[in-house]
């Protein structure tokens, strides 16, 4: 028998409780890491030490101590993975999630962060790829290094299915220290002779980073920049989203029947309008206290303008909306009940479609494969296609069929796709 110097019978109760707690803790550790078991044992050792210091006398049977030790050692051995298992787990973690298994026809694949889409009248599909940064490093500040590269591009898929890069080598960056929230070309509208491209926000510490935070009109034949729409400067002059957090992140572009260009700007909570004669002007500015984060813009058959919103953190389920405006800027209607909307599309018959990036945040990021395409109406939101991995942009072909970009973010492998909506 081993003896502790204890002062009263209360000590026996406490030591028994400690031993019993140790057994329970060890049993519950069957599905946790070895470190968890060790931490449980250490905690109990501290408790025993505290009791010993009370200097109360009681006898603890040696066989109880031996049994506790046996249980702990057995559980530690069980919780320790075999070398092969540990290596497999490390490899799986390094590779990330398995490739997305598309539920419908794949229109384009091997894309790097595909964002907005555009169908030309001849059936050619154009895709803005934000890229996957690159091997060049920019030191933003002593604690932040940003990867950059020319991996953003515009890809086209011909009516007969041939996929090709039509505008390569656009800038792409991450948000610092190997973050995979890539930024690059994301908004896209195509005319017979131009690509209108919105290049997203760069790292916050490099607000003036060349070619970011702006919209460019690029000649399709020569690749020369024909126009620069400086949304970053406009956001600065307007103090949007507020004077202390000026930003610009053009996320979608469309053109009205009269030729007016509309730009949804998620960074400054703005919807811009632009004409060749009048230049850039705010169509609508949202307050930072609302912080709706406009992401998509579409012009309906009645010339009204529809704007989708992502919402801000924590991206509450059914916590965002689509707003409908007259061409003169009057709010006509609000459609509630959406979650993390990244795009809106109004078809020729007036049907409103939207893309939901994810169902919200989980314990380790956005809820996996929870994105969807939905129809939106006054009486609510109806799912069209579910189980999508980070969908983003939506486009309608001349024949009326819809396509959506998926695996649009947080994927350094270039596993992005455009798939049919069915």
How would you explain this protein's 3D organization?
- By secondary structure, this protein is an alpha+beta fold.
- The chain has two domains: 2-80; 104-421, 6 Propeller (Neuraminidase), CATH 2.120.10.30.
- 18% of the residues lie in helices and 41% in strands.
- It contains five helices and 29 strands.
- Strands 4, 5, 6, 7 and 8 form a five-stranded antiparallel beta sheet that branches. Strands 3-29-28-27 form a four-stranded antiparallel beta sheet, with no helix packed on it.
- A hairpin with a 5-residue loop joins strand 11 (214-219) and strand 12 (225-229).
- It is globular and about 90 Å long.
**CATH homologous superfamily assignment of the largest domain:** TolB, C-terminal domain
Which sheet architecture does the biggest sheet show? Answer: 5 strands, antiparallel
Low-confidence stretches: 1-35, 51-58
**Would you tell me the structural class of the helices and strands?**
alpha+beta
Shape: globular
From the 3D structure, determine the CATH topology of the largest domain: Neuraminidase
Reported CATH architecture of the largest domain: 6 Propeller
Tell me the distance between the termini: 75 Å
- What percent of the residues sit in helical stretches (DSSP H or I)? 10-25%
CATH class of the largest domain: Mainly Beta
The helix count comes to 5
- How confident overall, as mean pLDDT? 83
Number of strands: 29
Give the percentage of residues in beta strands. 35-45%
Rg calc: 29 Å
How many structural domains does the protein architecture include?
2
